[in-house]
TrEMBL record:
Residues 25-60 form the Terminase ATPase subunit N-terminal domain. It comes from the Bacteria. InterPro entries: ATPase_terminase-su_N. This is Helix-turn-helix domain-containing protein.
Amino acid sequence: MTTQATELETVQQAMKQTKDKRMHERYQAVSLFLQGYTYAQITKIVGRNEKTVGEYVRAYLFFFSFFGNLNLCQIRAVNASWPIFSSFVI
C-alpha cells in the first residue's frame, strides 16, 4: 500500500469516527484532496470557500510532513501533547 493510500485510509477512518461536524468537514476536504479533487471541486462539495479548503489541506500537509504517517492512537497522543494541532487532529 502506498503512503498516500495509507494516509487516505487514516483520514477516512478518522472521518468516520469523529462526532464533531466541523472535524468531519475537515477530514472530508482532505480525503477529497488525497483522491485528486481540485480545491474548486472540494469547495462545491463541502460548501466552504477555496481559502478555507486550502487551510484545511495545508494544516494536514504540515502535520504529516512534520510527524510522518501515524496511526490514530499516535495522532491522539500528539494532539494531547501539542495543542496547536487540535484544530485539525482528532
